[in-house]
From TrEMBL:
The lineage of its organism: Eukaryota, Viridiplantae, Streptophyta, Embryophyta, Tracheophyta. It comes from the Eukaryota. This is fructokinase. Its EC number is 2.7.1.4. The gene is LOC107466918. GO terms for molecular function: ATP binding; fructokinase activity. May play an important role in maintaining the flux of carbon towards starch formation. It comes from Arachis duranensis.
């Protein structure tokens, strides 16, 4: 018979809650509205209409983890406007903890117009002058929430301007002191930085603090000032720092490469017909962090890591088959079904 606690929950349910808390992934950064053309292969000026979709890389990751059955929370700021309320509601609907979301009465929620080229790749036009996410203050950071996290995940956009930059660095210190695994996806958006030099310096300023880094081939070329992103020596000598537990290089439909102190390798991608690549990298990050939050031994066991990276590859692949970021993120059942179908085809 189930034993009930003073809270009214059975002992089994309480254990499940405790497990969820122990696997918490806290994501800090931007939450915004993506406006995506209703047709592909056109410029912003040519687009006949736009469909609004919730987005922002760290928020996408928080939703992705929750969709997969994990526990996530988001720290950030939106405007005290209809878009801001809508975004917060979407996080809640996806069971993301929004207790650390702040609302700014002075600035509006960030907007991004995203064009989809004929090949499904994106081009961006941002409206942030400033937007609410840039105005998150250190005093608004939920220290207790960060201390509960197993993993603290962040990008680089929140490092561009103060006061958000100071808030980000303060949160990073709290996470480090609390023993969180620090996960970093630079998510380069060059148009948002004052210059290429500022972007490179800003992104690398927190590089050696991360335990896990996910980076694209384009970002390797940018950060190494033109070096070959496929050269293992470039990656290991210029980007792998002594305290790093895992460095992942995403290669789109080709899959990903991985590097740890003990082993390195490649996990092949899965083939789909892409419609929109928005959010694919965030879905990938959700997939790998969901697995690591559940079992940290993945970082030491290569076979387990390879399984987790295949899972993450599939998360990314499913996402590109739909428009928008958050609307396209898969649940665990969708990933399992994809794996089953792929196994059936291969046999």
């Amino acid at each position: 018979m189930a034993q009930f606690t003073p809270s009214g929950k059975s002992g089994d349910l309480k254990q499940e809650d405790d497990k969820k808390t122990s696997e918490l992934v806290v994501c800090l950064g931007e939450l915004l509205i993506d406006f995506v053309p209703t047709v592909g292969g056109v410029s912003l000026a040519e687009a006949p209409a736009f469909k609004k979709a919730p987005g922002g890389a760290p928020a996408n990751v928080a939703v992705g983890i929750s969709r997969l059955g994990g526990s996530s929370a988001f720290i950030g700021k939106v405007g005290k406007d209809e878009f801001g309320y809508m975004l917060c509601d979407i996080l809640k609907q996806n069971f993301v903890d929004t207790s650390a979301v702040r609302f700014d009465s002075e600035a509006r929620t960030a907007l991004a117009f995203v064009t989809l080229r004929a090949d499904g790749e994106r081009e961006f036009l941002f409206f942030r002058n400033p937007s609410a996410d840039m105005l998150l203050h250190e005093s608004e950071i939920d220290k207790i929430l960060i201390q509960k996290a197993k993993i603290f995940h962040y990008g680089s956009i929140s490092l561009i301007h103060d006061p958000c930059k100071s808030a980000h660095l303060a949160a990073l210190r709290i996470a480090k002191e609390s023993g969180c695994i620090l996960s970093y996806d630079p998510n380069l958006r060059l148009a948002l930085w004052p210059s290429a030099e500022a972007a490179q310096k800003g992104i690398m300023s927190v590089w050696d603090k991360a335990d896990i880094i996910k980076i694209s081939e384009e970002e390797i070329t940018f950060l190494t000032k033109g070096d070959d992103p496929n050269d293992d020596d470039v990656v290991l000598k210029k980007l792998f720092h002594p305290d790093l537990k895992l460095l992942i290089v995403t290669q789109g439909s080709e899959g990903c490469r991985y590097y740890t102190k003990k082993f390195k390798g490649r996990v092949a991608g899965v083939k789909v017909n892409p419609i929109d690549t928005t959010g694919a990298g965030d879905a990938f990050v959700s997939g790998i962090l969901y697995n690591i939050a559940s079992d940290q031994s993945i970082l030491q066991e290569e076979e387990q890591l390879r399984k987790a990276l295949r899972f993450a590859n599939i998360c990314g692949a499913i996402t590109v088959t739909k428009r928008g970021a958050i609307p396209a993120l898969p649940n665990k059942e969708a990933v399992a079904q994809f794996m089953l179908e792929a196994t059936t085809i291969n046999t």
